[in-house]
Write a structure and sequence with these properties.
It is elongated, with a radius of gyration of 46 Å. Helices cover 22% and strands 30% of the residues. It starts with a helix and ends in a 6-residue tail after the last strand. By secondary structure, the chain is α+β, with helices and mostly antiparallel strands. The strands form 7 sheets. Strands 5, 6, 23, 24 and 25 form a 5-stranded antiparallel β-sheet that branches. Strands 7-8-9-10 form a 4-stranded antiparallel β-sheet. Strands 11-12-13-14 form a 4-stranded antiparallel β-sheet, with no helix packed on it.
Length: 482
C-alpha cells in the first residue's frame, strides 16, 4: 500500500504538466457531423518533418494546368484544383470548331484512302488477268497452214526448173556489196530453209460494191461506208463530256436551215438549249440564241424537226415537243411501256433508254420494253401529237450495241463506243421487217462516243465523241426496186 501511495504522489505533478500542454477540440465538419479532436505535443520531437511538401504542391499545380487543357479541348468549364479558375479553362468555340474540322478532314482522307485501295485492287486484278492472257497466248502453238489452192502443173514444172537458192542467177537479188566490199545477206529468214518455192499467203477479203458506179446519196439506198470523223468543236467544260447537237431538216421561221442546236447533257437539271446561226459560229463558240427548257432533259436522245425540239423528260418515259418559235411545250405524251432512267440503255450507259431521231421517213423512237426483254423496239411517231403510229420489235439486244441511227427507215447499230476502230454491225429494215449483220468500218476518234445521229439536213452522221462534236460523210447505194 505504501508503494502505491508513493506512485500516486509522483504521478500528480506529471499529470498536471501534461494537462497544461494537452488540448481538446470539439466542432462540426463541412457536412455537419460533430468531431472531437484531442492533441498532445510530442515529448520527443521538437518539430514534425515535412512529408512531401514541395512535391505535393508541384503536383497540385501540374494537375490544375492539366485540367485547364482538358477543359479547352472538351469545351467544358472545369474548376482546377485549388479553387482558382484557369485562364484557358473557359470554353472556346473556335477550338471546338477547329477540332470538328480536323475530324471531318480525317474522315474524308480515310474515305479517299479506301477508294484508292479499292482501285488499286481492281488494277491488280486486271494486271493479273492480262498476265494470264499473255502467258496463254505465248504457250499456244502456231497451227500449220495448208495451202488454200493446190499448185498447178505449170507451177510445179516452173518450181523444178528454177535454180536452187544461192545460185548465180539469183545472186543479184540475194546479196549486195557494202562499202567495205563485204556482202550483206538480204534473204528473209523464211527463205533459208528448204528448196525455194512459192509462199502461200491467205487473206480474208470483204467484198464491197464499187462506190463510183453504185452511189446514190440523194436516194434511200443501203449504207455502204462511213467516212473519217471531222471535228467541228470541243466543249469548254466538264458539262460537255456528253451531249447532243443537231440541225432541223425542215426549219421553221424565225430560224433558218443553217441553224445548229446544241445541248450539254452532264448534270441533273439539263435545260439549256444553245442555238448557232451556222456551223462556223458553232466552231467559234458564239451562240445567237439560248433557250431555257421548261422540263429537264434526259440523256442524248433529243432531235429537232419542223421547228420543234423533241426530247425525253428526265426520270420518266414522257416525250415532249417544244416549239422553238413560240418557246413553249406544244405536246407531251408517254411512250407506252418504254424503259427509262437506266432500265434499257445502250452499252455505254448514260440513261440512253429512249433515242429519238429523224430521217427521210419521219420521226422515230428507239427504245425497249419489259415485254421485249431488252431487245430494241422501233416506233414511228406522229410529229404533231407524239402518238405511236406503228412499232417493230427486233432481235437486237439494246445493251449489246453502243448506239444507233435511222436512215431511210433502216436502223443501223454501232458495235462499240470506245474502240477507236469499230463497225456498224447490224441493220434492220422496217420496210421488210428483216435484219442482218453487216461490217462497215466506223471510227471513234476520241474514244468515248455518247451520241450518233443521222442529220437529214446534211445527210451526214453527227456524233459527240468525248467532248468533241464530229461529223461523218456517208455513202449510200442505189435503192433497190420492190
Amino acid at each position: 500500500m505504501f508503494f502505491l501511495f508513493l506512485l500516486c504522489l509522483c504521478g500528480l505533478p506529471l499529470r498536471g504538466d501534461a494537462q497544461d500542454r494537452a488540448a481538446l477540440w470539439k466542432g462540426n465538419d463541412r457536412s455537419g457531423r460533430c468531431h472531437y479532436t484531442f492533441t498532445v505535443p510530442s515529448p520527443m520531437e521538437a518539430t514534425c518533418p515535412q512529408v512531401g511538401g514541395p512535391e505535393v504542391e508541384g503536383l497540385k499545380t501540374r494537375l490544375s494546368v492539366l485540367e485547364a487543357l482538358v477543359s479547352q479541348l472538351s469545351g467544358k468549364d472545369v474548376q482546377p484544383r485549388g479553387g482558382h479558375q484557369g485562364v484557358g479553362a473557359r470554353p472556346q468555340p473556335e477550338l471546338q470548331e477547329a477540332l470538328n474540322r480536323a475530324v471531318g478532314e480525317r474522315n474524308l482522307l480515310q474515305g479517299e484512302k479506301e477508294r484508292l485501295e479499292r482501285e488499286l485492287e481492281t488494277l491488280k486484278l486486271r494486271m493479273e488477268e492480262m498476265r494470264r492472257e499473255t502467258e496463254r497466248l505465248r504457250s499456244r502453238p502456231c497451227l500449220a497452214q495448208s495451202p488454200a489452192v493446190a499448185p498447178s502443173s505449170t507451177q510445179r514444172d516452173w518450181d523444178r526448173a528454177r535454180p536452187a537458192a544461192g545460185s548465180n542467177q539469183m545472186s543479184h537479188l540475194m546479196t549486195r556489196p557494202n562499202r567495205q566490199g563485204d556482202s550483206s545477206n538480204l534473204r528473209d529468214s523464211a527463205w533459208q530453209y528448204g528448196a525455194l518455192g512459192f509462199q502461200e499467203v491467205k487473206a480474208e477479203v470483204t467484198e464491197v460494191p464499187a462506190p463510183d458506179t453504185n452511189v446514190d446519196n440523194t436516194g434511200c439506198g443501203e449504207l455502204i461506208s462511213v467516212g473519217e470523223p471531222i471535228t467541228h468543236r470541243k466543249a469548254d467544260n466538264i458539262a460537255g463530256k456528253y451531249g447532243v447537237w443537231m440541225q432541223d431538216p425542215e426549219a421553221v421561221s424565225p430560224y433558218g436551215p443553217d441553224m445548229v442546236w446544241r445541248i450539254d447533257t452532264i448534270g441533273t437539271e439539263v435545260r439549256q438549249l444553245y442555238g448557232y446561226d451556222d456551223m462556223e459560229q458553232l466552231s467559234k463558240g458564239f451562240p445567237s440564241k439560248v433557250l431555257l427548257l421548261p422540263d429537264p432533259l434526259e440523256s442524248t436522245g433529243a432531235t429537232v424537226y419542223r421547228g420543234s425540239l423533241y426530247y425525253q423528260r428526265r426520270l420518266s418515259r414522257t416525250l415532249i415537243r417544244y416549239d422553238l418559235a413560240a418557246e413553249h411545250v406544244a405536246a407531251r405524251r408517254e411512250l407506252p411501256h418504254a424503259g427509262f432512267h437506266g432500265q434499257y440503255p445502250y452499252s455505254w450507259g448514260g440513261y440512253t433508254d429512249i433515242d429519238l431521231s429523224v430521217d427521210e421517213k419521219g420521226l422515230w423512237a428507239v427504245y425497249s420494253t419489259s415485254k421485249a426483254q431488252g431487245a430494241i423496239v422501233i416506233s414511228k411517231l406522229d410529229p404533231h401529237s407524239l402518238e405511236v403510229k406503228r412499232s417493230w420489235e427486233t432481235s437486237i439486244r439494246k445493251a449489246s450495241v453502243a448506239n444507233s441511227f435511222m436512215i431511210c427507215g433502216k436502223l443501223y447499230t454501232v458495235a462499240s463506243y470506245a474502240a477507236r476502230d469499230t463497225t456498224v454491225n447490224r441493220v434492220y429494215d422496217t420496210a421488210t421487217g428483216q435484219g442482218k449483220a453487216v461490217s462497215i468500218p466506223f471510227k471513234n476518234k476520241y474514244g468515248y462516243n455518247s451520241m450518233i445521229d443521222y442529220s437529214l439536213a446534211q445527210r451526214k452522221l453527227f456524233a459527240w465523241d468525248n467532248f468533241h462534236l464530229v461529223s461523218y460523210d456517208l455513202r449510200l447505194g442505189h435503192q433497190q426496186a420492190n
